[in-house]
Design a protein that fits this description.
Length: about 325
């Protein structure tokens, strides 16, 4: 083809086409020598910080008597040993303030709460102090007599995307009895009374019915707390570093002016706007004592329960198995 005899526009189009083709060839040649990064497997949150259940640290408080503190520590570790080992959980044990020490604190510092509440408050204050000194981002705090489904409750919290570290200052995970604000609880009680269900069902059957009902509703809770409906009997909760620093600096002073227990104070800091709290507690769960776990049959049941917990790890909280009342498991 004689380009000199072609129209001017066609000449320009041919030149542009040649330049574009050359650019594409150069780009392909260059990319041929660029290493392609391997595809990374999507990491679900259940695998993050696996040995600490999605938090930076896991603390367990235990009570020790004056006669043999070591045996109390061993008993506490005995309660959680199988769970921690089979689920690969790293636990840090913190000895609770004794009642004798709490009485001394009450006299020396003028704390207003009862002795048992002072012991609990001072124990958790020590944890907050450790978190502040080590700049801990978030911590899960459990009592020693936590039930065997600690893994499921913790996975439930982790499934929210580590909300305690990113969005909330405190996250309620486990408690020993119901809060009145649970959706449908009041309606359920009223319905049961109208239908005379209360008289026809045993106390255990009533508890199971209420628990089954609230299990369907607990994911729809609001983030608001109220003084009359704060979570009570809290024995598993998580706090972030900011909340721990605030509590560590203010808790001792508040104990000289406030007679309330730990549950109330934790909820109150959210009520007055100093922190954001959220409850992901399932229906209330029971705690068990070392005496119950000493029985060989009970220990076999604990092993089966832990294995079941390990096999049910999911990222969707609604897919978790229903929570069981550990106090009533022994007769099954």
């Amino acid at each position: 083809m004689d380009l000199n005899n072609c129209p001017r526009r066609l000449q320009i189009a041919l030149v542009v086409f040649v330049l574009m083709a050359a650019a594409m060839l150069i780009d392909l040649y260059a990319n041929a020598f660029v290493p392609i990064a391997p595809l990374t497997e999507h990491e679900v949150y259940a695998n993050a910080f696996n040995t600490t259940l999605g938090f930076h640290r896991v603390f367990v408080t235990y009570q020790a008597n004056n006669k043999n503190a070591k045996s109390a520590h061993v008993s506490c570790r005995h309660n959680l040993a199988e769970v921690a080992r089979m689920l690969d959980i790293d636990i840090e044990y913190v000895q609770s303030t004794t009642l004798v020490q709490a009485k001394q604190l009450k006299l020396q510092k003028g704390y207003m709460a009862d002795v048992e509440s002072i012991a609990e408050l001072d124990t958790h204050r020590k944890i907050y102090e450790m978190m502040e000194k080590t700049d801990t981002g978030s911590a899960l705090i459990l009592s020693c007599n936590i039930d065997v489904e600690v893994d499921l409750k913790s996975r439930l919290a982790a499934a929210l995307g580590n909300g305690v570290a990113n969005n909330y200052d405190i996250l309620y995970i486990g408690r020993t009895h119901s809060e009145p604000s649970e959706p449908m609880v009041d309606e359920l009680k009223e319905t049961m009374s109208q239908l005379d269900v209360v008289t026809s069902l045993s106390e255990l059957e009533q508890v199971k019915l209420q628990r089954m009902w609230t299990k369907k509703e607990f994911l729809h809770r609001t983030t608001q707390s109220y003084r009359s409906t704060y979570p009570k009997g809290t024995h598993a909760y998580a706090v972030n570093g900011r909340m721990a620093r605030r509590l560590n600096r203010r808790l001792s002073k508040r104990m000289t002016k406030d007679p309330h227990e730990l549950d109330y104070i934790l909820a109150d800091v959210a009520i007055v706007g100093l922190s954001l709290a959220y409850s992901v507690s399932p229906p209330p769960i029971a705690i068990y004592s070392p005496e119950q776990s000493d029985n060989s049959n009970n220990r076999q049941y604990l092993r089966r329960s832990v294995l079941q917990s390990a096999s049910l790890r999911k990222d969707n909280p609604s897919e978790y198995a229903p929570y069981k009342d550990v106090e009533n498991m022994w007769s099954l």
